[in-house]
Amino acid sequence: MATIDTLSPEPEAHDDHGHDHDHPPWLAHHFDTPEQQFDSGKLGIWLFLVTEILFFSGMFCAYAMFRMLRPEIFEGSSQFLDTKLGAINTGVLLFSSLTMAWAVRCSQTGEHKKLVVMIASTLSCAMVFLGVKTIEYSHKWGMGLLFPGAYFYDENNPHPTTEQLVSQHGFSENTAYFLTHSIYFLCAPFLLLLVGVVIWAIIAKVKKNDFQFAVAKPLVVVCLSFFGGVGLGMILTGSEEHAEGSHVAAAHHDAGEHDHAGAGEATESIAATYTEPTTFNPASDDAAVELLAESDLNTGAKAMLLAQEKQAELASGRVVAPGEDVDMGIERIERGVETKRQAGVFFGIYYCMTGVHAIHILGGIGVLVWLLVRAIRHDFNRQYFGPVDYVGLYWHLVDLIWIYLFPLLYLIR
């Protein structure tokens, strides 16, 4: 635990009603010493952090149960998470923990300028994290990787247009436009915040209000950091999509050359193997099942058809005696995981856990701005640095939660 200078304040004067007027402004009247005030605040923040741990524990339990029950869905859906973006955000938050711990030390030693720089650095890291997360969220929303009921991902058309979402998936025009242009909606509040802070800094400079200008100046850098994170995420996401597109184009080019070289043979082969197209037979036993399997929601019908095909393949040419145990391979049938009822649940858990964590980041930004204003006002000294220490503990917990979220969601396959 951090030590506090035990030099007591100057002698306290009490009036007839028992109120002391010589208390320093940072020492509340219901505390006798700075140590008592610091220890009380430390106990309070630890109790609050325990409730936060219990809150996140429920989501981690839901994650563990889902992964235990349906590991194949987890493995298939987690392939859509961008490990590079997650790793960058992990590094950013780790660095923010360093700057936050440094800020606590600066408040203990009375280094006001360094304290302001460290708090502003922590704020900038938080904004970079949100900027990268904005790119990650908007990219997934445009592809349809959403929670159950709204999931519409199609591997044949991973980036549908607004018109396609309206006509093919039944979304309203406003919802479809939001999904395809979500990055602009997510960035708009931060852009307005940046413009407001810049205007505030200009007005403070013109009116020669040194305190307000000293507060607005680092906040401009903090707001710009968000768009730095957005740019970084766009660069990484764009480079990855470009690499995938190059591989696809190269594959198509090779296939085109092969088809051109064997055009004559292909024509003869097609002519020799051509058969009349199969027509729908209402009397077929599997006709109804095949119709049901055409929908992504009917995963049971699809699994049934796959099981029947596997059984027919394994049992062809064999005679099974009565009572004989035969492994027909049904348990090895791979299920489609890119469906609303399957992958949608995974992404529902993903957005719940990472979204609540992002809300805690926003809350931390709010209290860090409060600390920044007080640090510029020189409210903290060797005897009074409790608020910086308390916020630091909260920030370390938020970072620690992400340290668990990153490997559990992004890395473990």
UniProtKB/TrEMBL annotation:
One of the protein's GO biological processes: aerobic electron transport chain
Oxidoreductase in keyword set: yes
Chain's gene name: ctaE
GO molecular function term, any single one: oxidoreductase activity
Residue ranges the record marks as coiled coil: none
Protein name: Cytochrome c oxidase subunit 3
SUPFAM superfamilies documented for this protein: Cytochrome c oxidase subunit III-like (SSF81452)
Presence of the UniProt keyword Membrane in the record: yes
Residue ranges of the TM segments: 43-66, 86-104, 116-135, 183-203, 215-236, 345-373, 393-412
Main localization, broad class: membrane
Species name: Allorhodopirellula solitaria
InterPro entries with a match to the protein in the record: Cyt_c/ubiquinol_Oxase_su3, Cyt_c_oxidase-like_su3, Cyt_c_oxidase_su3-like_sf, Cyt_c_oxidase_su3_a-hlx
Enzyme Commission number(s) of this protein: 1.9.3.1
Lineage start: Bacteria, Pseudomonadati, Planctomycetota, Planctomycetia, Pirellulales
Record keywords, A-Z: Membrane, Oxidoreductase, Transmembrane, Transmembrane helix
Region (Disordered): 1-26
PROSITE patterns given in the database record: COX3 (PS50253)
Domain of life from the UniProt record: Bacteria
Start and end residues of each Heme-copper oxidase subunit III family profile domain: 42-413
Record GO cellular component, one term: membrane
Subcellular localization: Membrane
